[in-house]
Design brief:
CATH architecture of the largest domain: Up-down Bundle
Order of helices and strands: HHHHHH
Number of strands: 0
Number of domains: 2
Largest sheet: none
Distance between the termini: 56 Å
Oligomer: single chain
Helix content: over 70%
Structural class: mainly alpha
CATH topology of the largest domain: Four Helix Bundle (Hemerythrin (Met), subunit A)
Strand content: under 5%
Number of helices: 6
Length: 154
């Protein structure tokens, strides 16, 4: 009897594992982790070669803007945490945290403008797909568990 229970347990675990694997492969958010947002957007909006080339230019501009803001956030955080070893004036603390917060909100503005530019690339027949994509954006780009395959720069 114990052997039969053991075999049933193993089969059940294998079925659950296969189900999870299928979910991860076919779920749009998990596909983005493997393909990246660029490929997902191109696929969902059915971009042609000309649109892809223009989209590549938008991506380069977007990445530069976000990278500049992230570097500024890093510099400001380093400046803030450098004050841990001494007493920081309240106005200095407030100023640094305000500037960090401003840069984070600016990143969201940059992201929003980026999608407005993507919308401009769409042809009339692609607008329905774009509108559908906009409903998925918050889910696709919402914070979740960290991607173990992606390494952060020091």
């Amino acid at each position: 009897m114990k052997r039969k229970t053991f075999v049933i347990s193993i089969i059940s675990l294998l079925l659950i594992g296969n189900g999870l694997l299928l979910y991860m492969v076919f779920h749009p958010a998990s596909r983005m982790l493997h393909e990246g947002p660029k490929e997902l957007i191109i696929e969902k909006l059915h971009f042609d070669a000309e649109q892809i080339a223009a989209y590549d230019d938008l991506i380069e501009i977007h990445r530069k803007e976000v990278r500049r803001l992230q570097e500024d956030i890093g510099r400001l955080k380093n400046e803030l945490f450098a004050h841990l070893s001494d007493e920081i004036a309240p106005q200095t603390f407030d100023s640094l945290t305000h500037r960090i917060g401003y840069d984070f909100s600016e990143i969201e503005r940059v992201n929003y403008r980026h999608f407005q530019e993507i919308k401009k690339l769409c042809k009339p027949e692609q607008m329905q797909a774009f509108n559908k994509l906009t409903h998925e954006l918050s889910r696709l780009f919402s914070p979740g568990p960290p991607n173990p395959g992606r390494r952060r720069r020091p």
